């Protein structure tokens, strides 16, 4: 199974997300991650879609995306060709015995405690999807109350001929 990241620039209007998601579901392509937001132009949105499949499936996804009327541009990246980030908020229940462990883990993983009460704390981490998964795994021994994650965001690595 190959994993690909598609950066899909689309017209920013209602129904476009549904059309793109429908393309994946009709053809039984899996979406591993999906993040959508406006670009610097308010009439254009960028969808970052992470999907996996064999080489034929990967090619088909790109071809089908390019056929959509609302799609302006499609860029396809392999993971090593781009910089990826994901944002996660995680709420944990803490006590005097594990509070220090949590704060040390946050320091090591460059996570930030963004809210706190007597028994709960909310942690924010922005990192690669792999490090987000690692952080969650390391928190498993602590009482995780709630997790919210964005999808993966990606941009191609900087090159001198970027313009």
Give me some keywords for this one.
4 helices, 28% helix, alpha+beta, 9 strands, 5-stranded antiparallel sheet, 4-stranded antiparallel sheet, 163 residues, single chain
Explained architecture:
This protein is an alpha+beta fold. Helix content is 28%, strand content 44%. It contains four helices and nine strands, in the order E-H-E-E-H-E-E-H-E-E-H-E-E. The protein has helices spanning 16-26, 55-67, 99-109, 129-139, and strands at 2-11, 30-38, 44-53, 71-77, 82-93, 112-116, 120-127, 143-149, 153-156. Strands 5, 6, 7, 8 and 9 form a five-stranded antiparallel sheet that branches. Strands 2-3-1-4 form a four-stranded antiparallel sheet, with helices on one face. A hairpin with a 3-residue loop joins strand 6 and strand 7 (120-127). It is elongated, with a radius of gyration of 19 Å. The protein starts with a strand and ends in a 7-residue tail after the last strand. The model has no long low-confidence stretch (mean pLDDT 93).
Main beta-sheet strand count, sense and barrel state: 5 strands, antiparallel
Instruction: Please report the number of helical segments.
Output: 4
Structural class label: alpha+beta
Mean pLDDT: 93
Helicity level, as a percent range? 25-40%
Compute the gyration radius: what is it? 19 Å
Q: Would you report the number of β strands?
A: 9
- Give the low-confidence spans: none
N- to C-terminal separation?
A: 33 Å
Molecular shape: elongated
H-E order? EHEEHEEHEEHEE
The amount of beta strand, in percent, is 35-45%
């Amino acid at each position: 199974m190959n994993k690909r990241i598609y950066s899909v620039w689309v017209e920013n209007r209602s129904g476009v997300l549904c059309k793109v998601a429908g393309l994946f579901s009709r053809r039984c392509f899996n979406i591993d991650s999906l993040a959508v937001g406006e670009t610097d132009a308010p009439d254009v949105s960028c969808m970052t879609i992470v999907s996996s499949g064999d080489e034929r499936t990967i090619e088909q996804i790109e071809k089908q995306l390019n056929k959509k009327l609302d799609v302006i541009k499609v860029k396809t990246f392999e993971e090593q060709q781009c910089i990826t980030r994901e944002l996660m908020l995680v709420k944990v229940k803490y006590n005097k015995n594990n509070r220090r462990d949590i704060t040390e883990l946050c320091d090591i993983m460059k996570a930030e405690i963004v809210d706190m009460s007597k028994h709960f704390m909310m942690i924010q981490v922005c990192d690669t999807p792999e490090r987000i998964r690692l952080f969650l795994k390391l928190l498993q021994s602590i009482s995780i109350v709630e997790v919210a994650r964005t999808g993966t965001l990606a941009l191609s690595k900087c090159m001198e001929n970027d313009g």
